[in-house]
Amino acid sequence: MRENPLVLHVLGARPNFVKAAPVVRALGELGVRQGIIHTGQHYDALMSDVFFADLGLPEPLANLAVGSGSHAKQTAALLVGLEEVVLEHDPDLVVVYGDVNSTLAAILVCAKLGVRTAHVEAGLRSFDRGMPEEVNRIVTDSLSDLLFVTSPDALSHLAAEGVPASKVHLVGNPMIDSLFSALPSLDPAPVVERLAIPARYAVATLHRPANVDTAEAARELVSSVLEVAGRIPLVVPVHPRGRTRLAEAGLVDGPSVRVVEPLGYVDFLSLVRGAALVVTDSGGVQEETTMLGVPCLTVRPNTERPITITHGTNRLVTPALLPAAAEKALADGAVTPSGELPPLWDGAAGPRIARVISAWLKGDNLSPAAQGTRSE
User: Fold this and answer.
1) Cα dihedral 288/290/291/295 (nearest 10)
2) CA distance 163 to 122
3) Under a CB-based contact definition with an 8 Å cutoff, are residues 239 and 48 in contact?
4) What is the pLDDT of residue 138?
5) What is the 3-state secondary structure (H, E, C) of 277-339?
6) For 296, which of 22, 206, 314, 356 could close a Cys bridge (C-beta 3.0–4.6 Å)?
7) Please, what are the domains in the chain?
8) Alpha-carbon distance 33 to 91, whole Å?
């Protein structure tokens, strides 16, 4: 290992920024040389630029600006752009986050070039290979040198897939670190006033391919969402992905629906914090509502985050069952997460990850058991 090793973080979408911020900050406090590569997978300024500001992330060394497109076109552009960046900067470790196409492309590039990698949020599984993200997770974990796990169930998944235990570290969830840091700033009132919505409202975020990529699925989903809006005013920050399809299906501004542009990190979480209910198909929102104690209905047949159901406020629903589930959740009112919160979701995941990376860069053989001891 070089005397002054370099760590690169590859970030492509909103959840990546939120997970990376605590890790970048903690590595900086340990004096590790590092840089950010922004792939531009989320090209909308409201989905990327504002997150750098809200989360205190440094300016990226490069922005590939790959934009949108089919999975093949986007991944191909990412492969070409990331190879050039990795060759230019010659990092000692590349850290990837989550399960987006930027994550997959970075892992493939590094595997071909012989560059070591770390995956934050490893081991999550929905067991549905119809989800593009599930394919990304499996490939990423199989090629990574360090795997940072956010929940105990992910440990079991990696073990079942034959991943050596020496690579795996249970560290907690850095997305929760960012949430804890933001909590003092999360005030729903200014956002509610700016968006001109009632004091009691629900929030919906919808973008998964299974929900928005076909006209039939979008119509079914929008029909159910509009039924929910008949029970409570609904705010929908519309993801660039699926915006046109959802609008064609009838999700437009109306008396009970407020369709808005994507919100920054602090504004969005402020809105969620004050909501009576959240309807989503996002993985990260399931985790954030778990910590905030907000009822969450996830419009998916499965989730790679079952801990948000067993330890949180999340429930899986089909579009057909969404209106009834929403009515029940609204009648039940505020939710207290069941039992204890997920283990190590305590706001200290970033420092745990940073300590493992720092030790690894120095050549220390830091076993998962030792890492867990040092993290307390």
Assistant:
1) 90
2) 11
3) no
4) 98
5) EEEECCHHHHHHHHHHCCCEEEECCCCCCCHHHHCCCEEEECCCCHHHHHHHHHHHCCCCCCC
6) 314
7) 6-173+344-375 (3.40.50.2000), 186-332 (3.40.50.2000)
8) 10
Is 144 exposed, middle or buried (CB count within 10 Å of its CB: 0-12, 13-18, 19+)? buried
Residue 335: predicted pLDDT:
66
Amino acid at 185: S
Instruction: State the angle between helix axes of 101-113 and 132-143 in degrees (0 to 180), rounded to the nearest 10.
Output: 30
Residues of the chain with pLDDT under 50: 47, 367-376
pLDDT digits (tens, 9 = 90+) for 253-303: 999 999 999 899 999 999 999 999 999 999 999 999 999 999 999 999 999
pLDDT of the residue at 48: 61
The pLDDT value recorded for residue 42 is 53
Known active-site residue 207:
yes
pLDDT, tens digit (0-9, with 9 covering 90-100), for 202-226: 999 998 889 998 999 999 999 999 9
Catalytic residue among 119, 169, 207, 239: 207
Residue 79: predicted pLDDT = 96
Give the single-character DSSP code of 47. Answer: G
State the Cα–Cα distance between residues 236 and 226, nearest whole angstrom.
Answer: 11
Cα–Cα distances in angstroms (integers) from residue 230 to residues 220, 251, 300, 327, in the given order: 16, 13, 22, 10
